Amino acid sequence: MMLVGTYQIHSKEAIYKVLEAGLASGYRLIDTASGYRNEEHIGAALRDLLPKFGLKREDLFITSKIGPSSAGNHASVVSCCQASLQHLGTTYLDLLLIHWPGLHKIAGEDPRNKAGRLVTWSALQDLYRSGVTRAIGVSNYETRHCREILDSGIVPHVNQVRAASVHRHCRVLPKSTNTDHIAANIAARDLVLSKEQFSLINSIQTRYKYAWDPKNIY
């Protein structure tokens, strides 16, 4: 299933344009997070767009995430989830993730991060049992982070990481706010690159990690 990523898309107009183009092109998975600060705009757009395209809520797969500022406290996690549901205009999420293994404004080596992860995972299990999310998981977790919670009740249904299992380091379909690119991305499912094109890509020498590194969170 192709997804519509909404990171760094903040305005109501931009969200509407992206979702309209995505749904028209066949996208049915929407990825957002409390920290993206756009869930309310997504909910407003879907109220208009679902009937426009003859779709129902159950035709979509909506993922949200608990951010570091809400993690580490059971009540805050529950409140964050409830806010996401209200903003998105839905009674349930298809998937709820812990966005990051660290806590807000806590140094990576601080042991409070581990304690916070356990509390947050316990809260997600309660939310799952209550039925407000149909699956729970983690995001950006290292293997050692996952091992901490394997014996804590429910095993994570998902560990969301960026990976390319066939062609390493080739980010083939980047997120886009351009309606033409959104349509072209989903149409590229049958695109096959030649060996020469792969060789050209692999010859790029620049290697730089632009995102935070979870290896530094203990």
TrEMBL record:
Q: Name one GO molecular function term.
A: oxidoreductase activity, acting on the CH-OH group of donors, NAD or NADP as acceptor
Q: PROSITE patterns attached here?
A: ALDOKETO_REDUCTASE_1, ALDOKETO_REDUCTASE_2
Q: Write down a Pfam family by its short name.
A: Aldo_ket_red
Note the superkingdom of the native organism.
Eukaryota
Alphabetical keyword list: NADP, Oxidoreductase
Q: Which InterPro entries match?
A: AKR (IPR020471), Aldo/ket_reductase_CS (IPR018170), NAD(P)_OxRdtase_dom_sf (IPR036812), NADP_OxRdtase_dom (IPR023210)
Keyword hit for Oxidoreductase: yes
Task: Report domain NADP-dependent oxidoreductase positions.
Answer: 5-165
Q: Has UniProt tagged this entry with the keyword Ribosomal protein?
A: no
Q: Which family does it belong to?
A: Belongs to the aldo/keto reductase family.
Name of the molecule in the record: NADP-dependent oxidoreductase domain-containing protein
Give the species: Hyalella azteca (Amphipod)
